[in-house]
Specification:
Elements lengths: L4 E2 L16 E2 L3 E9 L3 E8 L5 E8 H6 L3 H13 L8 E6 L3 E7 L4 E2 H6 L5 H19 L3 E2 L8 E3 L5 E3 L6 E2 L21 H4 L6 H18 L9 H10 L10 H10 L10 H6 L1 H4 L10 H9 L10 H7 L17 E7 L3 H15 L2 E5 L2 E5 L6 E8 L5 E8 L3 H16 L5 E3 L3
Antiparallel strand pairs: 1-3, 2-3, 3-4, 4-5, 5-7, 6-7, 8-10, 9-12, 10-11, 13-17, 13-18, 14-15, 15-16, 16-17
Bound molecules: adenine.
Length: 432
């Protein structure tokens, strides 16, 4: 069963009608439901300041916790934030309320590629174009240790230029899930796209499995139907296991040969991604697809276009132990490094309180954006207090120090630590 189903407009699942028109964080207006699955719903939404379309994937934290999926969601966050490629749906930001997590995703205007195939098969040229885009994105993921493991037409969307966008990494695995034998061991994927080694339940390599799924996708693009299909699930599995399929009569001999190399039931002899990139059928008209290098990603993604002092919630979610954001308040000697407190107090109020306390202690105060720097009268120590907005309501206050002797440390423990503790609904999270 697919993780996210397209909304065919016939019925709206639980609780979705009241979401329409709702504002999220005063930043997005929720539109119609695009799809839903067991743990998530995907909505069309508009960013209010720019009127730009986005897709918002909403997940209930309760459901996530009950389903013991915390690490699953954290993994999805860290996977998505590492991926930046023209044919992969971009993750713009992650927002969190008490009960929900929202992934703000690039909106793929053209909808599902699947819907287009349902209207009729593609020409060999068009099939090649989409396959080249798919392989470029998959190669990009694999070279970063990321395997999708659930590649299928439903996870392939189209943008406004009718170019491919891969979405939904909910079931993907990163290379650290590899067991000592070097193989992945989670059973996942949709039957018709599942590689034979997954059915054999003996562990598998993520890269090989994705290549198999790409082969099925290429077959479907060209044929308009599945290579291994049977109403009886066991019969379908048997066909997959044997790797016996027939190409329709319009398939060129080059494509037929290529498909046979991809849909090889033996993973150790199956074509590799590098061999795919070198194949003459694949190479025809292929222009290497450019993508930004890693350093540019960080700057573009997390520096620009965001409100000053606004930190993406997933930084915190990723670092904290569980969604309750509670943790230990740790000290190392006379040094405060990365102590974090979360509170609902507005940043101006926090700064006001810190300034008043600093005045009482005779400290020198310098304000910098949503931060305050406090110095001892003779410059002997510095306390940096930074405030970042996590969500509309939640602020994170982070404290760092330098040159803090016993006196400075006393000022911290007796004055500023209690001050932060007394902020409305203050909670500590571990520093790093
Ligand atoms: N359905 C699921 N994710 C989507 C996205 N990012 N854009 C458009 N439709 C989607």
């Amino acid at each position: 069963m697919p993780e996210i189903q397209a909304n065919n407009g016939n019925s709206l699942p639980y609780g979705s009608e009241e979401e329409l028109g709702r504002k999220l964080f005063k930043k997005y207006e929720l539109g119609k439901l695009l799809g839903y699955g067991a743990f998530a719903k995907v909505y069309h939404a508009r960013e209010l300041s720019t009127s730009q379309s986005v897709a918002i994937k909403a997940m209930g934290k309760q459901r996530i916790l009950r389903g013991n999926l915390t690490s699953h969601v954290k993994r999805e966050i860290s996977i998505l934030r590492r991926l930046r490629h023209p044919h992969i749906v971009r993750l713009d930001e992650v927002l969190a309320t008490k009960n929900k997590i929202y992934f703000v995703l690039e909106f793929a205007k053209g909808g599902e590629l699947f819907a287009k195939i349902a209207k009729g098969r593609f020409s060999e040229e068009l099939s090649r174009k989409y396959f080249q885009q798919l392989i470029s994105a998959v190669d990009y993921c694999h070279s970063r240790g990321v395997f999708h493991r659930d590649l299928k037409p439903e996870n392939l969307l189209l943008d406004e230029n009718w170019d491919l966008k891969i979405t939904d990494f909910g079931l993907s695995a990163v290379s650290d899930e590899v067991q000592p034998d070097g193989l992945l061991h989670t059973l996942c994927g949709t039957p018709a796209y599942v590689a034979p080694e997954i059915l054999a339940k003996k562990g598998y390599e993520g890269a090989k499995v994705d290549i198999w799924s790409c082969g099925i996708i290429l077959y479907v693009l060209n044929a308009g139907y599945l290579p291994f299909n049977d109403l009886n699930l066991m019969a379908m599995y048997r066909k997959i296991y044997k790797g016996i399929f027939r190409c329709p009569k319009w398939t060129s001999p080059e494509l037929k040969r290529f498909l046979t190399r991809i849909l090889d039931p033996n993973p150790s002899t199956r074509i590799t991604i590098h061999e795919i990139l070198d194949d003459p059928w694949f190479q025809k008209g292929y222009k290497e697809i450019k993508y930004p290098i890693e350093n540019e990603i960080e700057l573009k993604n997390f520096g620009q276009g965001e409100e000053k002092g606004f930190l993406n919630a997933f930084d915190i979610i990723s670092f904290s132990s569980g969604f309750d954001l509670s943790g230990l308040f740790s000290n190392n000697g006379n040094r405060i490094d990365g102590e974090k407190v979360i509170s609902k107090e507005p940043p101006e109020k926090i700064i006001e309180k810190i300034e008043a306390a600093a005045k009482e202690e005779g400290l020198v105060v310098a304000k910098k954006g949503f931060g305050v720097m406090l110095q001892g009268q003779n410059g002997n120590f510095t306390l940096m207090i930074e405030i970042n907005r996590l969500t509309e309501e939640l602020m994170m206050v982070e404290v760092k120090s330098s040159g803090l002797g016993p006196l400075g440390f006393d000022i911290w423990t007796e004055k500023f630590k209690p001050l932060l503790d007394s902020l409305p609904e203050a909670r500590h999270i571990a520093g790093n």
